[in-house]
Amino acid sequence: MAILKIARMGHPVLRRPSRALSVPFAGVERQLAHDMIETMLDAPGVGLAAPQVHVDWRFIVFRVPGERVTGASGDVEAPAQILINPEIEPLTQEMELGWEGCLSVPGLRGSVPRFTKIGYRGFDLAGNRVEREVSGFHARVVQHETDHLDGLLYIDRMEDLSLLTYTEEMRYFGADQTARNAPPA
Ligand code: NI
User: Fold this and answer.
1) Is 145 a residue of the active site?
2) In angstroms, what is the span from residue 46 Cα to ligand 1's centroid?
3) Distance 147 CA to ligand 1 centre (A)
4) Which position among 96, 131, 145, 159 bears the catalytic label?
5) Using CA atoms, how far apart are residues 110 and 98, in angstroms rounded to an integer?
6) pTM for this predicted structure
7) pLDDT digits (tens, 9 = 90+) for 82-109
């Protein structure tokens, strides 16, 4: 196991589309997936996409911490997990603003519009098909991570850059303690 170096905004690897992978993973991809989970938990973060550790492969790791979920259908606590070749489909046109941070954009937070409910498909580490309908924070973190695979950062999704702030100044936006302490993705 190893803690990996995280690419920061400006590194070209964060702007390139990632390549789809064949499943199940062989040894080298399996090792990288485990190292990405370790890196995410160490940061600490709630998600990490392969380009953030300088690898242009189409997979993400994420978790859904209990303090961020609404408890609504499709938005419950979930442990660290791997999703390979994720595909997202919005299940509503409704979007909502929520605070996000990114391990590749350290020190900043932004209020980002995301679909409130999505379906996603992909594969787990063993090559089993994963299909879920999720909402709330679960939907948000998967949208954030999958964007990384298309070379997008959360800032690209923001419609109002006056809602971009250093974490220390979030109090001026009325952000509660949970949002201010929330790990980035
Ligand atoms: Ni990120």
Assistant:
1) yes
2) 9
3) 8
4) 145
5) 8
6) 0.96
7) 999 999 999 999 999 999 999 999 999 9
